[in-house]
Design brief:
The protein has helices at 12-21, 24-33, 38-61, 67-91, 101-108. By secondary structure, it is mainly alpha-helical. It has one domain (12-108).
Length: 109
Amino acid sequence: MGKDNTSLGINENIEALLCYVLGWLTGILFLLLEKKNRFVRFHAMQSLFVFLALFVISLVAEFIPIVGPLISILILPVSIVLWVLLMFKAYQGEKYKLPWIGDFAESKV
């Protein structure tokens, strides 16, 4: 791990952690800014896919009677747990792949 192999000159584990800070927004930001580090780009892509999917699911759930509010209530704790877990794993320098989304993110990097 080092800052010599990133476009921004920040340690790659810090950049990878920052990909998750504001969910899909920072995912997009780091995809645009980080051009050469595949580790950081993977975490940016995974952040984008995971948190954008959760955001869209919560929006759609608002329109589903009865079950929609329950789905929305469950999305918040799931989002928080994933947020903390993914930031921790990224900071540790681990390329932690979530099922399905991690593989998809890796294929897009």
